[in-house]
Amino acid sequence: MTDHALLLVNLGSPASTSVPDVRRYLNQFLMDPYVVDLPWPARRLLVSLILAKRPAESAHAYASIWWEEGSPLIVLSRRLQEAMRPYWSHGPVELAMRYGEPSIESVLLRLADQGVKRVTFAPLYPQFADSTVTTAVELARKVIRERSLPLKMDVLAPFYNQPEYLQALVESAKPYLDKPFDHLLMSFHGLPERHLHKSDPTGTHCLKGADCCQKATGTVLDHCYRAQCIKTAEGFAHTAGLRPDQWSVSFQSRLGRAKWIEPYTEARLDELAAQGVKRLLVMCPAFVADCIETLEEIGMRGQEQFLAAGGQELILVPCLNEHPVWVKALTMLCERVPQSA
Ligand SMILES: C=CC1=C(C)c2cc3[nH]c(cc4nc(cc5[nH]c(cc1n2)c(C)c5CCC(=O)O)C(CCC(=O)O)=C4C)c(C)c3C=C
Ligand SMILES: [Fe+2]
Ligand SMILES: [Fe+2]
Question: Alpha helix (H) ranges present in 154-308?
Fold first, then answer.
């Protein structure tokens, strides 16, 4: 059978580092109601305010990490796509981005045109969030429905607790863990606290008490991004054989004035330096491919902050990218996705 495609989906990047391209990208991204979850008039107003200054700042940050071939996120996702082709025997392996190009719509139209009948849709996010997973899945379903595409679609669920994923993370981090270090910080992308309350199916669990995420199970855990990040970190530490005092978790990439989930990475970098940590490893397990959030926010600004606070070295552990163990792990996870009738 060669009519069953695998579609890898990531977030997307601006088309270039020019301010107009970055503004276009940020506008598409932030006007997504799953990302800035306000009613349209308030969202439009807030995003317009953000767009007054942010595109120039972000364009500068993108320029500092951009590669000759383009955005690291896109280039690395393409390399993953290429590496997976020999392993996926059921049909084409394609790549789409939720924002920017190649769009989910253009890729689904092309696949249907090629005679593909079934798509395994793989959002490249280990942990669930409405602002990443739901928005991509809903958009794909809308395209299939509105364009009447004869495609069956099955979705890869968040894989934060899958042994293959955790093992791949450990394998890829091994060269860094094998050298002496004082502490490992697992810095995940943050989320506004409001998003966590909204996705809590009980309406009463999330952010009630300091250890709510440690206690999350069942449908609460299935929907709680913060709890899934903590499970990822615990699973990683367990698989790597780390002691509890060797690692901690934080959340980065805060935007705007609302309260985001804590502890904040910025605060942890100062605390760790003050505690005498000199050689700090930072890994970012919410991202499977290196991007502006890892390379610039942690690798450049985070490093500068940690050194200014008295640390000696911040070593950024690369994301899974196209690591061969990850390529095989992701193939296995995608092979296991149940097929709808
Ligand atoms: C309200 C704003 C944002 C939410 C919510 C959010 C959630 C979220 N994002 C990722 C993964 C990525 N985000 C990336 C960049 C990025 N994120 C935001 C804002 C929110 N993200 C902005 C404005 C940007 C653009 C860069 C900037 O101006 O700072 C990226 C990298 C893209 C790239 O081109 O490299 C990724 C990946 C997750 C996993 C997540 C929720 C859990
Ligand atoms: Fe983001
Ligand atoms: Fe929670």
Answer: 163-177, 193-199, 212-215, 218-223, 225-240, 265-274, 292, 303-308
Determine phi and psi for 88, rounding to 5 degrees: -95, 105
Find out whether 189 is annotated in a ligand binding site: yes
**Regarding beta strands 93-97 and 313-316, do their DSSP bridges make them parallel or antiparallel, or are they unpaired?**
unpaired
Q: Was 293 annotated as part of a binding site? A: yes
Element (H, E) at 16: none
Q: How far is the CA of 243 from the centre of ligand 1 (A)?
A: 31
Query: Residues 321, 169: contact at Cβ < 8 Å?
Result: no
Q: Is the ipTM of this complex over 0.90?
A: yes
Q: What is the model's pLDDT at position 205?
A: 85
Q: Give the whole-angstrom CA distance, residue 281 versus residue 299.
A: 11
Q: Which atom number of ligand 1 is nearest to the Cα of residue 125?
A: 39
- Residues in CB range of 246: below 8 A, 6 or more apart: 183, 184, 237
What residues form DSSP beta bridges with 5? 119
Measure the N-to-C terminal CA separation of the chain; round to a whole number of Å. 16
Q: Is the pLDDT of residue 220 over 70?
A: yes
Per-residue model confidence as pLDDT tens digits over 114-169: 999 999 999 999 999 999 999 999 999 999 999 999 999 999 999 999 999 999 99
Atom of ligand 1 nearest to the CA of 256: 1
**Average pLDDT over the chain, rounded to whole?**
96
Q: Kindly state if the Cβ of 260 falls inside 6 Å of ligand 1.
A: no
The alpha carbon of 189 and the centre of ligand 2 are apart by a number of angstroms equal to 7
44-58, 197-211, 215-229, 273-287, range with the lowest pLDDT: 197-211
Domains of the chain as residue ranges with CATH: 4-159+324-335 (3.40.50.1400), 163-316 (3.40.50.1400)
**β-strands 118-123, 183-189 pairing:** unpaired
Nearest to 240 by CA among 292, 180, 178: 178
Predicted TM-score (pTM) of the model is 0.97
